[in-house]
Write a structure and sequence with these properties.
Layout lengths: L2 H22 L8 E5 L8 H9 L2 H8 L9 E6 L7 E4 L2 E5 H10 L11 H24 L8 H13 L4 H20 L17 H15 L5 H5 L5 H4 L2 H15 L6 H9 L21 H10 L24
Parallel strand pairs: 1-2, 2-4
Antiparallel strand pairs: 3-4
Helix pairs in contact: 4-5, 5-6, 5-7, 6-8, 7-8, 8-11
Length: 325
């Protein structure tokens, strides 16, 4: 092809491609979150569906995430997952299963006393955490954020970092509520650890517990001083937490914060997000989570999840909670 012909051809191609290019570079916008309460298929999920709607949980999450300038709409939804206790991000949507919410709600009734944590926070901490963790995955995808290390750990760090930007009192409640839920999970005798538990892409509940306490202590050693004084966070680990938090802050501020509308974020974070600590939880849900046993096995048997070499004679893996979130 002669040079002139080649130029003509290139120009023509550019004209054809132009409209698509303009569409692809549409400016990222704040208020890019949509929400959906999917009516449950299982009648046993009706109370949690109603509770979520009555407390406007998705609307609150939508507000909380409104300052992020996203290139595409992100949908937050709650829906039934045929017995699986799970939550995930995929295809511009965060899905949190009613089964997982039911599990959280039940956890808040597992003990009568929660040490320094309010009962309501054992539900609210992980509730915020699951949406923020999945939002972490969404942010990595939508904002094309590179990640070193395990993405699951990075998503936990995004969640913890955002929780720590709330006012001190609320940040403390969210962190302790989430940590306590991990503690309950780690100490649950029915959650037997096996070799394959450690193959999971997520950290174990105990590791996620310590990682969370460490980031919190690293962010504010005064606000979280009691975590070390009472022995929840071993001194060996605590000594490096300021550095661990600084590392997370640097990554967040450099890679994600440029996509935040600062004024809107300030307004959002200035709001009160949590009800009074003494708020009573609505009645305890039915004691058996829906399809609990089935759920574990179904997740275990999900193709590819534990590799093709897994056989039916292997011991069942630790609860699918480990693979959740
Ligand atoms: Zn995850």
């Amino acid at each position: 092809m002669k040079m002139v012909d080649a130029l003509v051809a290139l120009t023509a191609m550019a004209c054809v491609l132009a409209p698509a290019t303009v569409a692809d570079t549409a400016p990222a916008q704040t208020n890019s979150i949509e929400i959906a309460y999917i009516p449950p298929k299982n009648a046993q999920h009706q109370p949690i569906y109603q509770l979520m709607k009555d407390r406007r949980v998705l609307e609150r999450m939508q507000q909380l995430l409104s300052p992020f300038r996203l290139p595409r709409t992100l949908t937050l939804k709650v829906e039934g997952c045929d017995g699986e206790i799970d939550a995930w991000y995929a295809d511009d949507a965060v899905t949190v299963c009613y089964e997982y919410l039911h599990y959280l709600w039940q956890s808040a009734f597992k003990r009568t006393k929660f040490e320094d944590v309010a009962q309501i926070d054992v539900l609210l901490g992980p509730l915020f955490d699951v949406f923020l963790h999945e939002f972490g995955h969404a942010a990595f995808d939508l904002l094309d954020v590179p990640v070193f290390g395990r993405e699951e750990d990075a998503a936990d760090q995004v969640s913890a970092y955002i929780m720590l930007q709330f006012g001190k009192a609320e940040a403390r409640r969210l962190i302790l509520g989430t940590a306590y839920a991990y503690k309950l999970e780690a100490e649950d005798p029915s959650e037997r650890m096996t070799m394959t538990s450690f193959a999971n892409e997520h950290g174990t509940p105990a590791q996620r517990f310590y990682n969370l306490l460490c980031i919190a202590y690293g962010a504010d050693a005064q606000l979280f001083a009691d975590l070390v004084e009472k022995g929840y966070l071993p001194m060996d680990r605590a000594e490096g937490c300021e550095g661990e938090y600084a590392q997370v802050r640097k990554a967040f501020e450099r890679l994600i914060a440029p996509h935040i509308d600062e004024q809107l974020a300030k307004e959002v974070l200035d709001r009160t997000w949590l009800p009074d600590r003494a708020t009573k939880l609505p009645t305890r849900p039915r004691s058996k989570p829906v399809n609990w046993i089935t759920s574990k096995w179904r997740t275990w048997l999900k193709p590819g999840q534990f590799g093709s070499k897994q056989t039916f004679s292997d011991p069942p893996p630790k609860a699918d909670l480990e693979s959740a979130r």
